[in-house]
Specification:
This protein is of the alpha/beta class and 229 residues long. The protein has helices at residues 35-41, 104-114, 148-156, 178-185; strands spanning 7-10, 28-33, 50-54, 62-64, 85-92, 123-127, 161-164, 189-192, 205-208, 219-221, 225-228. Helix 3 links the parallel strand 6 (123-127) and strand 7 (161-164).
């Protein structure tokens, strides 16, 4: 039987030369071959273009895996696809302002508003409403955040993946990133800096975020999608 989704929602930011990212490392795309060069060299017989990429693993919309915070833990290549293709559940936390914590009570209220409880084995997507701030000065720190007590509670709910439009989940004053560690030590991968989450409000969907199969990878840019059923 053929199963066709009603809608496919693109949840990834576009990547581009010199794009902003949380670590400030270089993001660069430059030509290896150009149309003009190859057409000239081949007298018009060969025409193609290709580019080289230089970018950090944790750039733009990206996946974090356990190896990011734990020595010897699961790398990108070894994350089971079953942990990256999951039933999705969107929670609307757009009322939270910059510098405010997303509390357990916030999540419970958002889950009730969504019409279903937070369930084990799901990709829980927190929509903070910060998409329009992406790339602006201070966007890495001027945001809501997920405190450690909320992170521990979500581990207890046995979610399989946490996703958000936030560029970071931790309290900006906690430079050691304890929320990251809590989830990754519990084998809960994260997808950060998503966009278009509002398009999923009130919908049932399958979440898909498949990275390159990077040996020893601690993370990878992804283009997550939601298959609305």
């Amino acid at each position: 039987m053929t199963m066709v989704p009603k809608e496919i929602v693109d949840l990834g930011h576009t990547m581009f030369h010199n794009m902003p990212n949380i670590g400030g490392a270089a993001v660069a795309f430059w030509p290896v071959n150009s149309f003009d060069e190859l057409e000239t060299l081949s007298d018009g017989k060969l025409s193609m273009e290709s580019r080289m990429m230089l970018l950090p693993e944790h750039c733009g919309t990206h996946l974090d895996v356990p190896r990011h915070c734990t020595r010897g833990a699961t790398d990108v290549a070894d994350v089971p696809l079953e942990r990256l293709v999951l039933p999705g559940h969107l929670l609307d936390l757009t009322h939270r302002q910059n510098g405010e914590a997303i509390t357990i009570a916030d999540l419970e209220a958002a889950a009730e508003a969504s019409g279903r409880a937070i369930q084990p084995g799901t990709a829980l997507l927190v929509w903070a409403g910060v998409e329009d701030d992406w790339g602006k000065p201070g966007f890495t720190l001027n945001r809501p955040y997920v405190p450690t007590e909320t992170a521990h509670w979500l581990v207890e709910q046995e979610i399989a993946l946490f996703g958000t439009d936030l560029i970071g989940m931790d309290d900006p004053t906690e430079w050691w990133w304890p929320t990251h560690r809590i989830w990754l030590e519990a084998n809960i991968c994260m997808v950060q800096q998503m966009c278009n989450l509002g398009a999923l409000a009130g919908k049932e969907f399958l979440f898909v975020a498949v990275p390159l199969k990077l040996r020893d990878g601690t993370g990878c840019p992804v283009r997550p999608i939601a298959l609305v059923m």
